[in-house]
């Protein structure tokens, strides 16, 4: 840090000092400064902090006391731990303990803690104490205390303050950030120029540039965890559904799925007698269906079979007993024809009816397509397409 001398148009370096050299102490000075100027710890985005207690020792069965306890605009409790010239090795563990203690504080307990602080401050200055509820309503910008969300689960924050940080401290803080624990490190450096003293307060973890990135990474990780959990749930659900469905198919007159095992996918296929063109059962959250998927490696073969079946559309649909959905999908290699039903698929109470529907309609679907597919397949075996031959 430099001091500007406008008269000489020069800058002169300020002398870096240690707190102990200047006779400053942790509680008497650094803690007092931050208590009366908490905005010094809100340099990154200009957020506001409200100090609600100092030297707080209201933890059951312990004699420990945290330096400063604050609340932010979102109603999160902020544990502030101050160390002078050296952070020491155990400051993170100390702050984490205090955060765990504070995590159990209810809204009424937070209000009571703040009111005791205001009472103590008023007593020191011989004034009438302010009202904690009124102050919190104003600070949190809510209509009433009942509308305020204070000290919700997993919202506690840590702020560490020291002139120098040991590597084991910074490494631990950076590691904790990966788990969504909000922990900031502020470096405080005293300077001297003649008889004047200066204090520089700089947030070093996370750096201002990395804060948004870290928040984004935590949000992305939460999103991925949520997606993974949902995927696992769906896999388990599908496996259970197919087990029950296959059991009912084994009792029916439809033999397509007699040698098929349950899967965790949303589809289950069975051979139709035509290469690369299986029958499909589909189990979705909002829809179930029976169908035929024409997905041979040769697009020409798929088109040939689809057009051959479509030429017999009236007969096929009459034998099936209802209009089918015909999907030539010209922009894709595969083609499909299918019959669907809207359902609330993930409600297990609906499964018996859904499975009965699948068994009934796949039986009719196979019967309606058996002869047309057999005839078209005989024709298909005699055809050599332009690009390559069918297997």
TrEMBL record:
Signal peptide: none annotated. It comes from Larsenimonas rhizosphaerae. This is DUF4268 domain-containing protein. Coiled coil: none annotated. Residues 237-371 form the DUF4268 domain. One of its GO terms (molecular function) is nucleic acid binding. Gene3D superfamilies: 3.40.1350.10.
């Amino acid at each position: 840090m430099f001091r500007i001398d406008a008269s000489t148009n020069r800058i002169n370096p300020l002398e870096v000092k240690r707190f102990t050299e200047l006779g400053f102490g942790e509680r008497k000075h650094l803690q007092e400064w931050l208590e009366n100027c908490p905005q010094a710890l809100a340099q990154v985005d200009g957020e506001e902090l409200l100090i609600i207690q100092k030297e707080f020792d209201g933890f059951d069965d312990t004699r420990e006391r945290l330096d400063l306890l604050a609340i932010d605009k979102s109603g999160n409790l902020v544990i502030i731990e101050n160390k002078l010239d050296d952070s020491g090795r155990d400051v993170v563990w100390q702050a984490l303990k205090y955060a765990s203690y504070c995590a159990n504080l209810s809204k009424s307990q937070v209000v009571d803690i703040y009111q005791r602080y205001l009472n103590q401050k008023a007593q020191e200055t011989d004034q009438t104490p302010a009202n904690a509820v009124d102050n919190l309503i104003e600070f949190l910008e809510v209509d009433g205390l009942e509308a305020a969300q204070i000290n919700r689960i997993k919202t506690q924050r840590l702020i560490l303050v020291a002139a120098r940080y040991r590597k084991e401290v910074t490494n631990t803080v950076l590691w904790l950030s990966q788990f969504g624990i909000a922990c900031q490190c502020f470096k405080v450096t005293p300077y001297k120029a003649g008889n004047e003293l200066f204090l520089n307060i700089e947030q070093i973890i996370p750096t201002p540039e990395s804060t948004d990135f870290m928040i984004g990474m935590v949000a992305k990780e939460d999103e991925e965890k949520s997606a993974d959990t949902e995927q696992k749930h769906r896999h388990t659900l599908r496996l259970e559904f197919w087990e029950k469905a296959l059991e009912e198919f084994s009792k029916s007159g439809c033999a397509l799925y007699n040698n098929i095992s349950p899967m965790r996918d949303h589809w289950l296929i069975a051979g139709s007698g035509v290469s690369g063109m299986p029958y499909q059962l589909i189990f979705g959250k909002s829809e179930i269906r029976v169908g035929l998927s024409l997905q041979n490696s040769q697009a020409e073969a798929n088109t040939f079979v689809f057009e051959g079946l479509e030429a017999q559309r009236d007969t096929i649909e009459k034998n099936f007993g209802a209009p089918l959905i015909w999907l030539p999908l010209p922009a894709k290699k595969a083609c499909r024809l299918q019959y669907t039903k809207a359902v609330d698929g993930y409600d297990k109470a609906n499964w018996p009816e859904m499975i009965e529907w699948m068994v009934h309609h796949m039986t009719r679907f196979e019967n309606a397509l058996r002869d047309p597919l057999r005839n078209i397949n005989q024709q298909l075996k005699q055809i050599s397409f332009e690009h390559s031959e069918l297997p």
